[in-house]
UniProtKB/TrEMBL annotation:
Its cofactor is Fe(2+). The keyword Oxidoreductase applies. It is found in: Nucleus. This is F-box protein At1g78280-like. Residues 839-860 are annotated as: Disordered. Residues 19-65 form the F-box domain. Residues 851-860 have a biased composition (Basic and acidic residues). Belongs to the JARID1 histone demethylase family. It comes from Juglans regia. GO terms for cellular component: nucleus. GO terms for molecular function: metal ion binding; oxidoreductase activity. Residues 222-385 form the JmjC domain. InterPro entries: Cupin_8 (IPR041667), F-box-like_dom_sf (IPR036047), F-box_dom (IPR001810), JmjC_dom (IPR003347), JMJD6_ArgDemeth/LysHydrox (IPR050910), Kinase-like_dom_sf (IPR011009). Its main location: nucleus.
Amino acid sequence: MDNSQAQAFEPRDRRLDALGDLRVLPDETICAILEYLTPRDIARLACVSSVMYILCNEEPLWMILCLKRPNGSLQYRGSWKKTALHLESLPNECEEPCRKPLHFDGFNSLFLYRRLYRSHTSLYGFSFDNGTVERKKDLSIEEFYHQYDGKKPVLLTGLADSWPARCTWTTDQFLLKYGDTTFRISQKSSQKILIKFKDYVSYMKLQHDEDPIYIFDDKFGEVAPGLLKDYSVPHLFQEDFFDVLDRDQRPPFRWLIVGPERSGASWHIDPALTSAWNTLLCGRKRWALYPPGRVPLGVTVHVNEEDGDVNVETPSSLQWWLDIYPLLADEDKPFECTQLPGETIFVPSGWWHCVLNLETTIAVTQNFVNSTNFEFACLDMAPGYRHKGVCRAGLLALDEGSFEDADENMCYNDDDFSCSDLTRKEKRVRVLKPGDDPSKERTTNGASKRYNLWKQGFSYDINFLSMFLDKDRDHYNSPWSSGNCMGQREMREWLSKLWVGNPGKRELIWKGACLALNADKWLECLAEICTFHNLPSPADDERLPVGTGSNPVYLIGDSVVKIFVEGGLEASMYGLGTELEFYNLVRKVNSHLKKHIPDVLASGILYLENGSYTVVPWDGKGVPDVIAKSNLIPEKCELDGYAFGLWSKQQFEYRKAATSIHESISSAGCMMIWPYIITKRCKGKIFAQLRERLSWEDTLSLASFLGEQLRQLHLLPLPPFNYLIFPDIGKDLELTYTNSCMEVVPSKSNAPAEWEIFVRTLIRKKKDVTSRLSKWGDPIPNTLIEKVDEYILDDFSKLLDINEGKNGVNKVGNPCSWIHSDIMDDNIHMESRSVPLCSGESAKDAGGVDDGSKNGYDDGRMGDSWSPSHILDFSDLSSGDPILDLIPIYLDIFRGDQSLLKQFLNSYKLPLRRMPLHESVEGGDKLGRLSYLVMCYCILHEENILGAIFGLWKELRTAKSWEEVELAVWGELNTYDGFP
């Protein structure tokens, strides 16, 4: 056979012709692009060419497509492609016929081959019995604390010997008892997907996945309560500071873990720098661990510069063990061990770890915060990004200018420091790649220096790490990391409960509060205010702010001191200015409401200049000199009146509505100025502390009280509309915004002037609604986020029911009114009414649980009845549609209870306006529903109201339309006729 004949039989390279212009991309990139397409698009693309057929039939691709489906239940159909096509609800005749897949020669892919190899790798002999993690038995609490807690991992034997789970937690017994129970699976997906245990067992038997799905369920105690009886927290880990929180308040902390061979957890650090214990009941697990700050080779850490959110880019656990681990020098290898059934491994705070299941395993794990890691957890929740990066990546996370500070506190040579590549808004920490020669000085990026720095580690010391906090940021006025294990309100409540319930640990709690809350800074400010107004100095137990609000609030003797910080100085000035204008109006018109709002004792402004504090009294009128110097004088305001009053605030809110969710319009350079107010301290407790203790009669009484007081609030006259502040209102002009964008706004809505600004603000909020909802994410369904723009009208003036009045002046169905905006469970105060206990009955028997917390004078005996007395915190006052006040009351106070809503409306006795039916406009049927109006307000709200809705009505997380959500939550309003 000559050469020409031989060449004729050689397979040609299909890739060049089959991919066209895409041939310049590596296979890995093309596969990553395919993940963004829909299953139907993938099916079509598979018909384009032979190579596309191969790439589009890869099981890992179809697995990702399945896991991107909306939240719901999963049933594996023998392959991920069949599962995905089934989820598409294709008719039977469209299902792929049973036939052998096509095969093509002339195509080779090292990327696909490696993935296929990993998918069929057996780990039977993958154990390495000579692990470097110590094994201990019968360890005392004292030995654990001094040798391991916060220091190094340890394998503990014997802790689970008495557990029923040692005998009952097997695959077969789970099938018998929990076969039809649905558990959550964990995978690289934003969706929460459930699977019945019997279906998961079928999947484990059939699958050949490189990174199999595995059960990782933090709600297993709710869906299968019997499992909680099968184990107990080992005595070494009993101390848990999260125990003070109710089950629904504390962040996820315990998980049931079930996984087949090759599954596992890739490299990570546990959330909030918590510690963890993990007990294995069957199977074998392979563990690898690195000390804090020593980022595993092959892993990249991303830290968002704005909110400190941390994202870890890491290969799968199996890929790391097969591809990276063999290349490591002996001195670079991690702490490692093979965990056997019945053994418990302890992972200290801040330690990197990854886990590989060597066979089918069942385990239980819990994270906890104790005295050792409490300060680290508080540090991790503090605003900023630098300290978060250092806690995880050590000194590799620092830029060059930060090494000098670190050098003073660390015992390293100058040659050991280097600068990682930190650019733009995201700080990306890179480490030496496996196989690089650290002895060569040829790299310009300082690879050998980074290697030496990585190898030697760093000091995981709280005093050292706290150096990297951003001192210019504070907990109340900075972006909150979406990766934090709890929200800002929850974190403040957690610290408050610890402070009240653990007086013996107050010094430790105070240190944590200083890290997370800037508690020491606010205490300094409080002391200056108290001195100026001759208030008593804060007592030891008064050092910590109370409540969960967004401003530091203190209880000092008979007084309550609130320091305004939320939103920055400009927002704070409008908050206090509007509140003082409101209090003056209530007294001026002698409103009945004045009996149920706290008396104002003093107000002013505190500022720090040249290292010393100055207090300036301010009653809300005029513009203080310190504020004028900060260039915060509202445009065209009346300087002798309430310059920072209601209408100036409305202009501020209007401007703020046009800013991106990532932007802030608070003035720079004004961080050292704080408005404050001092009010008379109320007796009793806030409703948030009493919710579970109130009788149904007391709760109904609360609903009636809120209806009565909201009626008084909404009937108050508004200040005269200030046309100087809004010169374009009422003119036939398009609205132009000067921040590099122009909006299309109806040139003339025929709305009265005070409603015009309300409508225009809503229009501005709608422009950014999709990105805002996407940022909030779960539990808001992605399918609804995609439909939100078509659900909400573009012209909100159509919702106002505008009628032509006398002299051609247009009127809206309801008048524009004052709005509290924030009537939530911590802004309602209640007093006790003594009721006799039955003979021999204790307060505890009567349902009282004295948690010791106080937001006023706790003069009530346990077992007392409680009645509402005051509405607190008017700093969020606004004007507009009074229906807005119904949102926090119904969702937060009433928790969606319609009977309480009816009780409220019966006392409110003001008509909720029925929407007219606009048949002439598209979507006119929506305009006839009051529920539609309120749902629009919920979607456009600056707070995550939708998160509360989908938290209360969990069944709506699978809703197909906004109308379905609207009618389920607010449909009752459509049958309410109001009162004359």
